[in-house]
Amino acid sequence: MRKMYALGTGTMALAAVVATGLAAHADKGDPVPEPAAHSKTALPAGYQIVTLPNANVPNFQRRVVFCPGGKHVLGGGGEAQGNGAILVGSFPTLDGRGWIALGRQIGYSTVGISVYAICAY
Predict the structure, then answer these.
(1) What is the Cα–Cα distance from 99 to 90, expressed in whole angstroms?
(2) What gap in Å lies between CA 11 and CA 51, rounded to an integer?
(3) Domain segments of the chain as ranges
(4) Averaged over 71-87, what is the pLDDT?
(5) Phi, psi (5° rounding) for residue 11?
(6) Is pTM beyond 0.85 here?
């Protein structure tokens, strides 16, 4: 037997607004923007992406990658790998010269973590 549920007027109104917004956006036919062309002159001096390849570490253990030769970190990120792996944190070092990532894997004592830093002078 199928159960029927009544939706309140607030829910119906929200559904109507969402549907209208989606329909309005779809009708615009806006083209997908082209990716910006990157030239070497547009990049900051000494631009470099530094990686710390995937390695299994204990859950919640920080992995850190540092920028080489006096460079500072502009941004970065991390990746948690494994069944049920979750990236718990991804942030710059306090001195601004590297990137930290940490994670955990549900049901396991270790997790695979990769770290990336975008560096420049």
Answers:
(1) 7
(2) 47
(3) 42-120
(4) 97
(5) -65, -40
(6) no
